Amino acid sequence: MSHSIVANYDVEYNSGFISNGKYDSGAVTIGYDYPVFKSIHVGIAYDAITTKDDYSIDGVSFLNFYLKYIFPINDNFSFWSLLGYHTPKKDLEDSNKGLSYGLGITLKSGIGIDYMRYNISKDDFNYLPGYDGYITTYSLSYNF
After folding, report:
1. Is the dihedral of CA 86, 88, 93, 98 positive or negative?
2. pLDDT tens across 46-94, in order?
3. Could you say which DSSP state residue 96 is in?
């Protein structure tokens, strides 16, 4: 379970317009990891509460399937990296599915700090320009 404390977006439209900014509220994400090997986990995560800004209707959320590699540093904490494939939901549900990346540190107590990047894109449609970009989040997490 995690709560994003900072969420930013950076998008370039095919028309040349560039948009970037910060979301006002963070997402609450719930997920499940399953250990396949000692340090390799597969998992799924869903933003149960969306990230929103002043222009959001339903907010932005993702359904993310991922592979996580855990690097134990010592008995007190571990570092992890993540590679995933996400499906955008809510306000971005018309966007293409894409890759997601993550890094984090988790303490023995289960408390952690996470960084995630979700690549987003949409193809041109009729007279509406498509876009390419990404959304990044910095989160506090608790693993149990």
Report:
1. negative
2. 999 999 888 888 989 999 999 999 999 999 999 999 999 999 999 889 8
3. P
What is the distance between the alpha carbons of residues 41 and 61, in angstroms, rounded to a whole number? Answer: 22
Q: CA–CA separation, 123 vs 121, rounded Å?
A: 7
The DSSP bridge pattern shows strands 98-107 and 111-122 to be: antiparallel
Domains in the chain, ordered, with CATH?
Answer: 2-142 (2.40.160)
**b/e map 61-91, b = 16+ CB within 10 Å:** bbebebebebeeeeeeebebebebebbbbbb
Residue carrying structure tokens 């509406």: 128
On whether the pTM is more than 0.90, the answer is yes
